[in-house]
Amino acid sequence: MQQKAIQISNLKKTYGSSVEALKGISLSVEEGDFVALLGPNGAGKSTTIGIICSLVNKSSGEVKIMGHSIDKELDAAKRCIGLVPQEFNFSQFETCKQIVVTQAGYYGVPRHIANQRAEEMLKKLSLWEKRDTPSRELSGGMKRRLMIARALMHSPQILILDEPTAGVDIEIRRSMWEFLTELNESGTTIVLTTHYLEEAEQLCRNIAIIDQGKIIENTSMKDLISRLDIETFVLDVSSVPTEFPCIDKVCFRKRDESSIEIDVPKEAGLNQVFAWLTEQGIEVLSMRNKSNRLEELFVQLTENGQS
Amino acid sequence: MFDRQSLTALQSIFIKEVTRYFRIWVQTLLPPAITMSLYFVIFGQLIGSRVGQMDGVSYMEYITPGIIMMSVITNSYSNVVSSFFSAKFQRSIEEMLVAPVPTLYILLGYVLGGVSRGLLTGIIVTIVASQFVDIQVYSWGILFFVVFLTSMMFATGGLVNAIFAKKFDDISIVPTFILTPLTYLGGVFYSIQLLPEFWQNVSMANPILYMVNAFRFGFLGFSDINITTALILISAFIVSLFSLAYYLLNKGIGIRS
Lengths: 307, 257
Ligand SMILES: Nc1ncnc2c1ncn2[C@@H]1O[C@H](COP(=O)(O)OP(=O)(O)OP(=O)(O)O)[C@@H](O)[C@H]1O
Ligand SMILES: [Mg+2]
Known about the structure:
The structure holds 2 protein chains of 2 kinds. Chain A is of the alpha/beta class. Chain A has helices spanning 45-52, 74-79, 96-106, 111-124, 140-151, 170-185, 197-203, 221-226, 271-279, 293-306; strands spanning 4-15, 19-30, 34-38, 60-65, 68-69, 81-84, 158-162, 189-193, 206-211, 214-220, 230-237, 246-247, 250-256, 259-265, 284-289. The relative contact order of chain A is 0.13. The mean pLDDT of chain A is 90. Chain B is elongated and about 60 Å long.
């Protein structure tokens, strides 16, 4: 049997005496997997990651990293993970190069090797020109990339990223996605949290949704998407029809004076719809998804949790 | 425990610490040189010439060891307390916590960083002093031993302080309200023989008195107190503070939620 990269059983965390952040989470991540951990603000994502990386003490439960229990073989467990935390946590006055080389040193990588690796990683993340710049003088997106470089200095088998693309522009986000996809293809297990569902859909094979300290969904991305049965489109039209029939299970709605909405079930086609519109002398100027379908589902799922 | 990987981690912490105080040398290495020059000018030359001799040597010679010691103490302490606290504050301490660095090495890395700054400051102040006074050394061995242990003790004390500190104010309370008064009353500027017996006995409860006197012994060959007692006392302090710091770090007090 293949060993699990991360195995969490019945993990609980109470901050202080009252804030129950995790109420018994169980989750396992296969080696080589690419998993999204989703959930609303305050759901417990960062807490879960904190415990996995031993920045937060758990209240109870068990965590194994590549088979090493964090209670019994903490050092071995730590060596397997690289962490990109949600908040910037550099020493502000240290330069990019100092930061990554020092981090490698903490993992026992000898200095001359760490220097080579620093060059390699900083170049990969387009930070080499900034190598002697103190971290506080970097832009937000550069800081995010520096955290990724730092996390990879000891070539970990698992990379955990807590909202790596928050505040990152589209171009850099895309290049980060590419980078992460390549990294995953070369064998690194990746877990990431994000608030952009499009990102999760694009990158991840599996998904876990956490809400109020509980896992409410843990499945493959394909499965989740196949559950989305109706998709809503917005059509910008030359004129709005006077009647709103349902054609071949597709129902029409007026949106405003220049656009309509259509609900399209999975099995329905759009040809009839366009044919009917043409018949009415209505020209379709453009068409778009009303909102990310995943987002709809996400809101549905997490709202169910509130009741 | 003494494997190569842990030693590399220790080396990384140490280099980071040394780089830090060299980077801000205007705040760390320059002030003791200036302040201590003032002490030598004012107390040593201007007032000292009126004081005359103390314990058979010129006043300037008498206060030199105490002044060096004073800067060693302050600098070892403040290096660790500021560095560790700001690592906590900026959360860069997490870099160490996620990695397999043994607690002992985190502790040693910071303490040795503080010791190195204490010793370097000691050397700078000694060089400054040598411009004012002809420095004699009675025993290099004792001198080095005492200054090393003292800076180790205060570096460890600074770490304990930083572990408990929750805000910036908390890192200046101990230096201002405890260290400075104890240092001034620790026989830097006078021999406790000058005090009435009651205050002599009270002074004996001040650990800094032992360090200053032991250090002075290394230079001049005489002291108000017994050298062996002093060394035992300093060692006892180091062992207790070190164990306390180890315990606190290991439990993650102030650094893990
Ligand atoms: N150090 C702490 N002390 C007390 N409570 C905390 C602490 N850290 C987090 N919490 C609480 O634990 C809960 C979970 O927080 P966590 O940071 O894990 O959420 P999250 O899912 O990462 O949210 P976000 O998407 O906003 O980052 C929240 O109610 C939060 O207030
Ligand atoms: Mg979070």
